[in-house]
What does this fold into?
Amino acid sequence: MNIEVFYPNLMLHLLAIFQKFTTFRQKFNYIKSFHKIIFMMGVRSLLSKPFAAYIHWLDQQWINHPIEAQERVFRYLIDTAQNTEFGKEHNFDAIQTHEDFKRNVPIRDYEGLKPYIEQIKAGKSDVLWRGFPAYFAKTSGTTSGTKYIPITKDSIPNHINSARNALLAYIYETGNSTFLDKNLIFLSGSPILDKTGPAHILTGRLSGIVNHHVPSYLRTNQKPSYETNCLEDWEQKLDKIIDETINSPMSLISGIPPWVQMYFDRIYEHTQKPIKDVFPNFSLFVYGGVNFEPYRKKLFDTIGKKIDSIETYPASEGFIAYQNSQADNGLLLLLNSGIFFEFIPAEDFFNENPSRLTIGEVELNKNYALVINSNAGLWGYSIGDTIKFVSKNPYKLVVTGRIKHFISAFGEHVIGEEVEKAMQYTLSIHPEVSISEFSVAPQVTPQEGGLPYHEWLIAFQNHPHSLEKFAADLDHKLCQLNTYYKDLITGKILRTLVITPLASNAFQDYMKSIGKLGGQNKVPRLANDRNIADEIIKWKI
It folds into this structure.
């Protein structure tokens, strides 16, 4: 049968069967079964297209009605959690509106949620959500030590289906699907899981947990092997990954940009070839976790050609958004995936009673701290990120930084978005320069005396022709982006920024020295103290 006829007929047949099911669970199980069948070996790329079209159609239902979608999620969350410990303590049975919710549920970070987590770890059920969590995603907190973020049976689809749908959105828009028939590599943490508490809740890194839910139709061409993924030592693991992939038809590579770059650099050491010659089928890069722009030039130079990329916004607390179009860099906020979002204007965040807005109340191009309420049992939970909306039809955002990652030693309140934009601009006008990573910290009492300054610790891959000119252009751009910083410079309160060049592998060596090399670990781009800076500066050149 002609494929143009086959696709519509197939979809009509499947949709006719779909309509016969009466319950949500029957429909869900049918979609899940169909989902597995269409990606079987040999027909993944072919049949992914009608499935992508179907998921696109489903998504349009909530994309076109965003406020209603969030209201449905809100009602579902409150109704489901009424009989939990948290729900009883916070009067969920009396909550009808967002105003009611705000009066009863305060904003919390992990420390505020921790007493409930400890109850779950001690063996108590129905605390934050019905039953026990299926998993704890174990992460490192800057102030809380190890954090245990619950992932429930109800919240797992948010993590798994969102990642799948990011790829399907790409297939729907571009028509490119042949990458599904080649090898796919996911640079992730170990899938080995421990057990926590009397309930034996499976516990590990988010990427390791997700690894257990990779669909069977992708496992046959997934790299690296399970055994290699279980290795904890990143450098040993990297060598094994290279052994397993260097002669494979890799088409998709996914991971945090600095660790993908490290993988590429190691391959170049082995082959002395650009990545495009080692992996001629490589056509799609999927990433998340950090701003890609400072890495873009170096990464594509290493690849040797331009390829498509998809940015995602996953977190242990939930899969927030993904890039659904190659035409723009905005990330589609997932308003129908078990998370009810609140947004606090960044300038209000540290107030005693900050404004808490819903999706229908946000404005474009304004920084908000992101707060989530979810079917993982997170309530009024600040995940620590700041975002900015770049579109309201549909709602798309960009991540602008961390609410607690800023420099304001002198009242300048320089944020992550500003230092990253300043660096991106300066690299664009100094094309000879490439960097592997950077971090910024205040220098309040310089040993050499004189005015304080912002110190930029930069690991250069290729150094500027003139470090002084590079620093001047960087400082000038930051002044344009932050008037408070400019006023401190012109008022002789601060001197212009100072660049401290580091060895090209400085940040990797630093992370190795503290036992956090690889996986999802990363160094903050800026801080209001010198705790990290005074360690990294040991790699000064």
Summary: The CA atoms of residues 330 and 396 lie 5 Å apart.
